[in-house]
Amino acid sequence: MHRVAVLVLEGAKPLDVGIPAQVFTTRASMPYEVRVCGAAPGLVTGGDGLSWHVAHGLEALEWAEIVFIPGYRHPDREDPPAVVVEALRAAHTRGARLAAISTGAFALAATGLLDGRRATTHWHYTRALAARYPAIEVDENVLFVDEGRVLTSAGAASGLDLCLHVLRGDLGVAASNHAARRLVAAPYRSGGQAQYVPRSVPEPLGERFAATREWALRHLGEPLGLTELARHAAVSPRTFSRRFADDTGYTPMQWVLRARIDVARELLERSSLGVEQIAADVGLGTGANLRMHFQRILGTTPSEYRRTFSQGE
């Protein structure tokens, strides 16, 4: 039997707790034993109005071969209790794998075990994680990261991808596919696949050039270079570039490209237009150009994206 501990912290998110507990449930096809634990046995107040009465305390981390750390509310406000951090470090020293789901990455980061490594978390918190733990290489454009004995995933659905990835490594592809069918889940999504954030164009940090951004979004199918954008904003290209980057965190042309990719994503989801037509409509010219940018930014192809997100499926 493989031994799995699910560590429930204050404010834990229900799906994040439930996913590893259900994926690794004990049954004939799944030789796992799961123990749900907390900093101490008893009641743990979770997020979204739910709480857990856990039977085990941190001794479960001494027993486990892999420890899942579900996400929890307000991870950027304070570290988990020192006793939890030390127990996670000790489990890792003994050889256990530590796997964080969503904002559980903050608890794992507090141990120092992610320093110098790649990691991810829910897209809403990637910048906060990078700011709080600058020694971590935070990758905001992946579903999960496997660094050997420390693993991290994006939001709750990506936690399922991570669990199936772990299962695939433990028991092979057949067992992983069987579990995916039981859970009515996609049998495999690459960890390198991008987090599908509803809109990748970031919210403005200020009001400068807001009118130009709105104008650009209405004219994505037309040529939009730095000259055209600066002319609309009535400033020099140099001034526009500097202030635009201050507002958005992107250069003007990076922002335009991501805006075009976002519109292409929406057309793939909501229309039956071909890739060539979509590329022309959003200002990317050719289908080959659209495919190249899709692969580079999202880590997938337009056709795979449409199969995953088309409203007709």
From TrEMBL:
UniProt cross-references to Gene3D superfamilies, sorted A to Z: 3.40.50.880, Homeodomain-like
Superkingdom field: Bacteria
UniProt-recorded name of the protein: Helix-turn-helix domain-containing protein
SMART domains hit by this protein: HTH_ARAC
HTH araC/xylS-type domain sequence ranges: 210-308
InterPro entries cross-referenced by the UniProt entry: Class_I_gatase-like, DJ-1/PfpI, Homeodomain-like_sf, HTH_AraC, HTH_AraC-typ_CS, INH-QAR
A Pfam family hit: DJ-1_PfpI
Keyword annotations from UniProtKB, A to Z: DNA-binding, Transcription, Transcription regulation
Signal sequence, renumbered to the chain: none
